[in-house]
Design a protein that fits this description.
Layout lengths: L2 H32 L6 H19 L3 H24 L7 H23 L15 E3 L2 E3 L1 H20 L3 H11 L1 H6 L4 H26 L9 H12 L4 H26 L3 H16 L14
Antiparallel strand pairs: 1-2
Helix pairs in contact: 1-5, 1-6, 1-8, 1-9, 1-10, 2-3, 2-4, 2-8, 2-9, 3-8, 5-8, 6-8, 9-10, 9-11, 10-11
Length: 295
């Protein structure tokens, strides 16, 4: 075995996996604060970079200057999704809320396709213009920068859930009725979780848009995000970080060795297998909380 080749695949896979974890972060944020499975995260990840490019094109500012405007807009969109689509479903069966988030995903993707079309657009951040060597290893510079951003944001969100507001969101997730009874504004808490999820999606979308192009395919990152979230535990931010590392390494190493033999498609196969096996063997994930109800 060429150990240098294996190490290069593992390192780049780990960095890409951290960027998958950034997509999963939005899913975990909403589940951790409201116990709602979010299937709209892929569309939010796609919409964020589209808004960045739209602001940059309309105002003539640089892409970097347009990112804060997109973040503020996505924060507002997250609040609007909760108020318009989800607030009236409070207390309804989870499957209804799940279908609503799927409907939001389809609506956002169709809206983006109508406004911006289906052609890919470049995200000129300038973070992948030159190769990065760490000793003899060739590392994808965009993956390295994206992984660094992910670690910083994970630290911010882990700190957030230790604050008073974060504890309130966790209380809402545990029991809506009890939270209402002690005067907690459940609606505001859930809206905040959707807003933060949209912000995380914007960061993920911009970073992935610089690696590939900004188009409808960014919404397909939902599958990677769900797999990472389920593997790490849907209510564990740290678990999502570790799960992203594991999934990234596994799929990159597998594709590096098996794609030349099988003709491609190994990445998708690995992701699907990890998701199915996790649900079958450990449905609450590596670090998720296992709730046992006594009947």
């Amino acid at each position: 075995m060429d150990w240098m080749y294996f190490l290069e695949l593992a390192v780049n896979g780990a960095l890409a996996g951290l960027m998958y974890a950034l997509v999963a972060m939005g899913i975990v944020l909403i589940y951790k604060s409201s116990s709602v499975p979010n299937l709209a995260q892929g569309a939010l990840t796609m919409l964020g970079p589209y808004l960045v490019l739209a602001f940059a094109g309309k105002t003539g500012m640089s892409v970097w200057a347009a990112i804060p405007l997109a973040v503020v807009s996505m924060f507002a969109i997250g609040v609007a999704i909760e108020r318009v689509a989800l607030r009236r479903l409070a207390g309804r069966p989870v499957v209804m809320i799940l279908m609503m988030t799927l409907g939001v995903d389809i609506f956002l993707r169709a809206t983006a396709l109508t406004i911006w079309g289906g052609s890919g657009r470049n995200m000129p951040l300038g973070i992948s213009d030159s190769p990065l060597f760490v000793g003899p290893l060739l590392v994808n510079r965009a993956y390295a920068i994206g992984a660094g951003v992910t670690v910083v944001l994970f630290g911010v969100f882990m700190f957030f859930f230790r604050t008073r507001t974060g504890l309130v969101l966790r209380a809402i997730a545990d029991d809506y009725t009890a939270s209402w009874s002690v005067g907690i504004s459940v609606e505001r808490g859930v809206a905040l979780s959707w807003a933060l999820s949209a912000v995380a999606a914007t960061a993920a979308g911009v970073l992935w848009g610089s690696v590939q192009t900004v188009d409808q395919s960014l919404s397909l990152l939902l599958l990677k995000g769900i797999t990472v979230g389920v593997l790490g535990g849907l209510d564990s931010i740290g678990g999502a970080l570790l799960a992203g590392l594991l999934l990234g390494i596994l799929e990159n190493v597998a594709s590096g060795y098996l794609d030349p033999l099988l003709g491609g498609g190994t990445r998708e196969l690995v992701v699907a297998a990890v998701l199915i096996l996790t649900i079958m063997i450990r449905p609450h994930g590596l670090f998720g909380r296992q709730d046992i109800e006594r009947i």
